[in-house]
Amino acid sequence: MIGFWNLIRFFLVQTHELQLSFIMTRFIYTCIAFSALFLFYYAQFYCIPNVPSFCRRLVAIIPVITCILSITANKHLFFISLNPEAETFDMGARPYIYGAWFYVHILYSYALIFLSCVLFFIKLFSPQVKNRKEVIAITAAVCMFTVMNIIGTFIAQTELITLLSLLAHLFSINALYFLTYRDMDQKGLYLGKKDFFEDFTQPVLIFNTKGELLKANTVAVQFFTQSNIPIQPYALYGDMFCGRFFVPIQSRNQTDYALYMQHRTTGKVFLCHKKPVLNPQSNKSIGTTIIMYDAGMLGELIQKIEQNAFTDALCGCLNRNCFELRKGTIVQNAVKPCLLLAADIDDLKEVNDTFGHSAGDDYIQTCAAILQQAINTPNTLFRIGGDEFVAFIPHCTETDAATIVKKIETLCTNQKKSWKVSISVGCSIINGNHNDLIQHFIQADDAMYANKQKHKQQLVDI
């Protein structure tokens, strides 16, 4: 925006065409309004970052109105209009007539520029400032920018002075732009994504290379303030995470970038994940971002993820992924004798075709509930296919197996559905060291298919 302002001013000096100069001047005042606004925004973010966004929006009202009035100035007299007596553009001949809003714009724009200078001076003399050289240089560039504005607007009456003020103005703007990259603390905050971490629900801290605190998100400020731990700008990492407040916990997974720390007061364990903030030009570290994850919450999260990964969404029992992962250890660790039960839902396809897939889902859920009720042992039933289930029941004899099968048949008979509820079951008893799971599966499958044929024959007989 400021570069565009300078470009138009340069061409304005070269022209004597009144109408063309009027168009250029209208765009210049648009650029001036927003340049002053953006300079104030920069000063505010740099010096007083915690200002509500609502206040920033209020500050923009007058520049927006100025922009509209300036662009449409040929339609009204509120802002700027051509002097009827002027024939050519001459800076010393007053070619324009200024309306009431022009003076509002001038006063407001210079007020913003003046306040920007004040903010930089306040930061410059603040005892908390560590990067004072960079702040001095930036403040000097802003003051030069302000002086060149005054000279270019009120003093320059010749093309030479205007051109010199233009060059000095351009130099001050470029100096300000490049000096912002010299402030490593501000660059560390920008590259450390300080605004992105503000919405995190975990404490997030950004430190410079000296271990001085540059920024803490709202959650971090609340936690450290409640714990009476220093959280002011440039507080040292060593003071914040010293032995008075945190106890380091040794872990096999601990690295320079992942540390476990226990808070002494609350007993909470945090996984402190450190990530270097790299300068893209040199690829060197200019700071560190620390995210403090509550290890207790991480444990609950991992448990929920595991539960979702291993639970069948339709039936609520364990799924095939869990079965494939655990089948080798279940038989080895189960109390013998152990029952391997294979179950298959009868005529599921017919129910789907006749009553619809919602009825088919209901049929699957009903059968899963029947199997779970008959087995009466938690975390032993797996759904390994659309209509196939497997269960491992520890400490189960042949007599117990017969009781379970009978209970399944009874529960199926008692169901009141629009279709016949039927489950074909096959069993294999695992004794002692006979842990050949494949052989037991073959035996259970054979028994299950024999049972399925029996059910079909009964249906034919009926």
Automatic annotation (TrEMBL):
Residues 336-462 form the GGDEF domain. SUPFAM superfamilies: Nucleotide cyclase. The chain crosses the membrane at residues 27-46, 58-80, 100-122, 134-155, 161-179. GO terms for molecular function: diguanylate cyclase activity. The keyword Lipid metabolism does not apply. It holds the Pfam family GGDEF. Keywords: Membrane, Transmembrane, Transmembrane helix. This is diguanylate cyclase. It comes from Treponema vincentii ATCC 35580. The lineage of its organism: Bacteria, Pseudomonadati, Spirochaetota, Spirochaetia, Spirochaetales.
